[in-house]
Amino acid sequence: MNSQNAWIITGPTSGIGRRTALELAAYGTVVLVGRDPAKLAVVEQQIEARGGQAVPVVADFSDVGSVRRAAGEIVALGLQIAGVLNNAGIFPLESRTTRQGWDLTYATNHLGPFAFTEALVPHLPDGANVVFVCSAVEDPERRPAVMAGFRGARFVSVEASVRGEWKPGGSTRPGLDAYATSKQGNLATVLAFARETPRLRFNAVEPGFSPGSGLSRDAGPLLVFLSKYVLSPLAPMIKYWSTPKRAARVIAEVLTADSDASGVYYDERGKPMLGSAQVRDPGFSERVVAETRAFLATVPAAP
Ligand SMILES: NC(=O)c1ccc[n+]([C@@H]2O[C@H](COP(=O)([O-])OP(=O)(O)OC[C@H]3O[C@@H](n4cnc5c(N)ncnc54)[C@H](OP(=O)(O)O)[C@@H]3O)[C@@H](O)[C@H]2O)c1
């Protein structure tokens, strides 16, 4: 692997992303994109202590202007970008909004990574691999997700999602509908971009349910403690479950693979899997992309 290569990772300060950033350090310079400079500095030091190289870039993925600025800063670094990992994400159980009044989960998980990727694409060399960390909870046929209260993605339109409006008949907790719909947006983006831009590669990974990550921090201290110290050690024995460390290995392998694969959705073991029937319909993923572009076109460029 060329040590001149640079790998961009979003959300490298916790859970799956932190572990993946440490793995990626073996493959070249790691561009750490996160919202908290102090947390970024810690990961940067950890990578440098292992003899690796890292560059921190600050971005808040709930804010399209911040994300576009960060993409511009990364391009200006002039690195040889081999891959981009869209990993940052949130899973609040209840509805929250950004300062613009947009659904916080949809903005952070779908709009921000979409705008970030669109800003980087023209600057990526042929063959670069763009990977999104997705989630099978977007699929209403995914039984463990249904048992956990999900009802699959509840897409009405991108504008409705931005307003936090979901297709009726969803979960009893709106946060679950927001999360599932935002993660379907990630997968739709991968599938449509892979068809649209064959000079690059776009792939998706479902990392497995990792109770040891920080994603469930909203669930309250007792559940967070149980998840980390009771459920997480059981993960290797349970189908569809994983740990941040195992997920990081699979993601790093997919991202750095010397392969032509594009438009592939990998499961927690790194094997190809299928998304929901809805997202597999090319007309649907193209609609999500077109509506997202139309919405983002209304967001003023950063000053
Ligand atoms: N854990 C699971 O079971 C699971 C299953 C399927 C998919 N996933 C996906 O895996 C990815 C990583 O999740 P995780 O489980 O590792 O969660 P995590 O431990 O909570 O890590 C999330 C990362 O995203 C960052 N982030 C959150 N909001 C951000 C914002 N507005 N701007 C910039 N960065 C932001 C966090 O930064 P801070 O450190 O500053 O908070 C953190 O680095 C997510 O996309 C998630 O949807 C997770």
UniProtKB/TrEMBL annotation:
<dbReference type="InterPro" id="IPR002347">
    <property type="entry name" value="SDR_fam"/>
</dbReference>
<protein>
    <submittedName>
        <fullName>NAD(P)-dependent dehydrogenase (Short-subunit alcohol dehydrogenase family)</fullName>
    </submittedName>
</protein>
<dbReference type="GO" id="GO:0016491">
    <property type="term" value="F:oxidoreductase activity"/>
</dbReference>
<dbReference type="Pfam" id="PF00106">
    <property type="entry name" value="adh_short"/>
</dbReference>
<keyword id="KW-0560">Oxidoreductase</keyword>
<dbReference type="InterPro" id="IPR036291">
    <property type="entry name" value="NAD(P)-bd_dom_sf"/>
</dbReference>
<comment type="similarity">
    <text>Belongs to the short-chain dehydrogenases/reductases (SDR) family.</text>
</comment>
